[in-house]
Specification:
79 residues, alpha+beta, Glutaredoxin, 4-stranded mixed β-sheet, 41% helix, 24% strand
């Protein structure tokens, strides 16, 4: 499973990363988290607000800090 976090370094991005870490801690399988700061990725995925969360090339959220519970929910749906 591939998780991408898009956006510049900010407190909101750090909060989202922390929630991703908590939400994936008990998941089995290979989970790769990638940080993408380049503007080209924002246009590639059609993102206007950051931080954005992309799981398996599907935009899950943008401009929102998902909770640990919400992240676990999306991981179950997309796995």
């Amino acid at each position: 499973m591939e998780i991408k976090v898009l956006g510049k370094n900010s407190s909101n991005r750090m909060k989202l990363l922390k929630n991703i870490e908590k939400g994936t801690s008990n998941e089995k399988g290979n989970i790769e988290v990638t940080l993408l700061e380049d503007e080209k990725y924002l246009s590639k995925y059609g993102i206007s607000n950051t931080p954005a969360l992309v799981i398996n090339d599907k935009v899950i959220s943008q401009g929102k800090i998902l909770t640990e519970k919400e992240i676990k929910h999306y991981l179950k749906i997309l796995s």
